[in-house]
Queue: 4 jobs
Job 1
Amino acid sequence: MDELDINSETQTKIEAVKTANDAEVKKIKDDTSLADDQRKKKMQELRKKRMAEIDALLTPEQKAKADEKRKALKAKVETADN
């Protein structure tokens, strides 16, 4: 996230979001009552929630840069899968 030029206060808030997210990921992974498709769906929902929470902390310029990075990463992953 260095490329986004995030100040220390915002970085601290982002780290808090990530820490809370990590705890939720652990709960989902440890929940033996979930079927694989349910687990996958919950993880996707959690990922979207985390991105929205982080995006809410960014300036419009930082969000635009973050969106560009996400698109590039997605393209790279899709290329690697083919």
Note: The chain has one domain: 2-81.
Job 2
Amino acid sequence: MRKTIKIEALVDRANHMLANSTCSRDIRLGVATLLESMLHEANAYNGYRHLSQSEVPRGQLAGIVGEPGKFEFPDDSRRQYGFKK
């Protein structure tokens, strides 16, 4: 029996985990790598953006801080993915 999942549901679940999880950075990067692989395979990859401090749990590092030309990426696993429909 073959089962399928909608790309949108997969991206939503992964984005929620990448934004809200307090697990290790390595685990989040693993989720990101798996998601990117699946999106590329489905020809649906459309990039990602780093999350700001207001988009991650209190006390956790943001994906991006600073201003244009002076950005830093304290935790590059804090991402939000888009996809092609």
Note: The chain has one domain: 7-83.
Job 3
Amino acid sequence: MDHDTEATAPGVSIRWIAEVVVLPKVGVNDPEGEAILGGLRGLGHELVQHVRAGRLMRVTLAAPSLAAAQADLELMCERLLANPVIERYQVRVHPENEEGGQPVPGRELPPA
């Protein structure tokens, strides 16, 4: 089955694994990141120039399609998992038995 476009039979759901990364937006004060940077430099890691601290959450959900899982995760992020005023987030979703995943469109984090 093509998880990207097809739904399962009525009443049947696929287990999805989502990884949600939440970081402060650029320009938002990040005291935890600054403390980590200071600690790394104090340990002799002078090559480190900048640290942004955030959260990683793994969410398991059952949905009939990738689109349904993505839509529900977008709502979760907007309502609870992230504060859209000061944070940005990225979500990667994949069926429970597969590696990798597709990012949810929207407020994705820029490449590092």
Note: The chain has one domain: 14-103.
Job 4
Amino acid sequence: MTADENLLKVSRFAKAVSHPLRIRIIQVLCPDEPGSMPFPMSPKNLAELLDAPLSTVSYHVKVLKELEIAYLVKKVPRRGAMEHFYRLKPWATAALLVLMDQDLR
């Protein structure tokens, strides 16, 4: 990976953690232990867990996906719509664990 690619990742991560709700979403999506893989979560799951409006959570998950912090794992049909499930990208998980000194919860 080049220095420019590293700077781009740092820039994306800084923008991702610039909003309190995105930080909370990242914390929920982050595995408890380095190398483990948490269950993917949908904006609906996250909204319920974080007690936040679904539309707001959906927007912030979309931002995390656009910043390449989170990625789509699967789509599941639900009552005529599609529920999307996301995980953090491994590099974002590693950055978060380092940034927060592995003390997420």
Note: The longest strand covers residues 70-78.
